Amino acid sequence: MKILNSKFLPLVKSLHREFLRAGSDVMQAFTFYASDDKLINRGNQAGRLFTGIDINEAACKIAREVADEGDALVAGGISQTPSYLSGKGKESVQAEFRKQVQVLTKNKVDFFICEYFEHIEEMEWAVEVCKETDLPVAATMCIGTEGDLHNKSVGECAVRMAIAGADVVGLNCHFDPFKMLEAIAMMKAALSAAGLKPYLMSQPLAFHTPDTGKQGFIDLPEFPFALEPRVCTRWEMQRYAREAYDLGVQYIGGCCGFESYHIRAVSEELAKERRKQPESSKKHDPWGESLKMHTKPWVRARARRSYWENLNPATGRPYSSAFSKPDNWGVTAGSEELKQKAESTTAEELQKVFACNSKLKWISCSF
C-alpha cells in the first residue's frame, strides 16, 4: 500500500499522539472526505495516486496504533460527497459510503461518525449504510440554528438522524462553540418533544463566528487561510466544555482550528467528571499560578483563575474591523454551479467566480 510507505506517516502518528496526551478519549481516523469521488474532484491528483481503500485503511491502522498506547477508542468517519452535490441519487451516493464503511469495518473501528453533512437527506443515507453493520453510529451535521441547506430546521434534522438509527446526534464544524451550543439546545428540545433520547455530541470550530450566516465560517472572507485572529483561547474552551456538559452533551470535542491545547482545556475542565487528568497536564500551569513569581506586580495579579476566566481578550489585530461580511452566495445541492467534475477548474470558470465574488448575489451572475 503506497501511503503506508509515506515519509509523512510518523508525523500523522505524532499528531494523534499529541491529542491522546491532551486527553482525547477517541482517535478519529483521518478518513474525512476520503471517498473515491472526492479524490478525483476538480483536478485533485490524490485519486491518481491512491484509492479510497488505501487512504481509509492506512488511516485506521495509524489511529489504532496510537489508541493502543493509551485507553482510547477508534472512530472511522464518512462525510458528505460530491456525488450528492451533483445530484447523482441515493444509489450512487450510498455506493461511495459503502466502500468506506467496508474498509472501516474490516479494520475494526469501534464506531462510526457520519460528520460534516449539510443536508439531512444525505445524512440519512449515510446512517442507513452504517447501520448495515453492528457498530454504533454518531451523526453530526455542519449546520447551525437556521437549519440545513434545504431549509429543514435543526430540530427536524436531529429527529430524523435519531429515527434513521444514529445512537449519538449532534453538530460539527462551521460554527464556534457557543453558537453551536445554541443549536444543540434546539436539537435537544426537538428530540425531547419527539420522545427520542440519543446521546448528544458537539464538535465546533475553534474560531469565533458571531458574524456568520447560515453556512457558517465557509462564507467568511477570511476562510480558509486567514482565520487565526478568530482563534478561541484555552479559557474559552474551558467555558465551552462546562456549558456543553451542563447542557447534557456527553461527546465533547472539536473540529477545524482545534489544537491539542484546546482539547487539554476541555479535559482539564471536566477532570472531576472524567476522574482523570490528561497526561500533558502533569507539567501544565492551567490557571497561571506560576505567574506569582513574575517580576512585575500587575502580572503577578494575574496568577488566579478568576482573572483568566473573566478576561475579554482583544482581537489581537489593532484597527481591524469588528466583524466580517459573509459572502452568502446562496447555492447548494441542486444548483447547476455545484455539480462536480473530475477535470481541473478552468481559467474561464475561475474568471466567472472571480466576477461573481464582487456581486451582491449569485443570481446576478450568468453561467
Fold and architecture overview:
The chain is of the alpha/beta class and 367 residues long. Helices cover 40% and strands 9% of the residues. It is built from 15 helices and 7 strands. A 7-stranded parallel β-sheet has the order 1-2-3-4-5-6-7. Strand 3, helix 7 and strand 4 form a beta-alpha-beta unit.
Described by the principal axes of the CA atoms, the overall outline is globular
Structural class: alpha/beta
Instruction: Report Rg.
Output: 21 Å
Beta-strand share of residues: 5-15%
Uncertain spans:
360-367
Order of helices and strands: HEHHHEHHEHEHEHEHEHHHHH
What's the story with the biggest beta sheet? 7 strands, parallel
- Total number of strands: 7
Please tell me the overall pLDDT.
90
Helix content: 25-40%
- Strand arrangement across the biggest beta sheet: 1-2-3-4-5-6-7
Termini separation comes to 42 Å
